[in-house]
Amino acid sequence: MNQFRQRMKMVCYLTIVLYCSALFFAIHDYLAEMEGLAYQGEQTVIFCPQHTTTPQIEVIDVSSGTIREASAYNSVIAQTDDTPCIGADGSNLCDRLAAGECLFAANFDKLGTKHYLEGFGECTLADRMNSRYKNSIDIFMGDDISAANQFGRRSILVKDLN
């Protein structure tokens, strides 16, 4: 009987530990969705960009990145202004995307800065978002509306590479 009580006590302790762990990760995910949660510690990402024809491997230190809310947008007038291929930096985003460059819009940094975007690799900040989006990013996907819809909204790691 005494052994049974010890086992039950152990099961209760383990249940509490598992519950607390689950609660911790739920809070962590919630804070990440609220943006601005910085990764801490040493982390390295090995990334092979999909937008290039020749496989390249980049090793990027992402220990000081920030989780940001990300969405995708297209070069259509309904989503932009009357010049959908012209970015806030004055360049032709459609031509740059066709040349294999990864581009995004944001309001938290200077135009032309390079950032690592989780799932995309090195990308250039070339456009601006509506002023109400202060910490979010919008990844430019040219005229591929289905890819932008499939991407949806999600939290990703963003790191300034400058």
Description:
The protein is of the alpha+beta class. The protein has 2 domains: 33 residues; 124 residues, RlpA-like domain (Barwin-like endoglucanases, Beta Barrel), CATH 2.40.40. Helices cover 28% and strands 27% of the residues. The protein contains 3 helices and 9 strands. The protein has a 6-stranded mixed β-barrel. Strands 2-3 form a two-stranded antiparallel sheet. Strand 6 and strand 7 form a beta hairpin. The longest helix is centred in the first third of the chain and has 32 residues. The radius of gyration is 21 Å and the shape is elongated.
Please sum up the structure shown.
This protein is an alpha+beta fold.
Give the rounded overall mean pLDDT: 77
**Percent range of helical residues:** 25-40%
Structural class label: alpha+beta
Per DSSP, the total helix count is: 3
CATH architectural group of the largest domain: Beta Barrel
Radius of gyration computed on alpha carbons: 21 Å
Strand order of the largest sheet: 4-8-5-7-6-9
List SSEs in N-to-C order.
Answer: HEEEEHEEEEHE
Distance between the termini: 65 Å
Structurally, how many domains make up the residues?
2
Main sheet characteristics: 6 strands, mixed, barrel
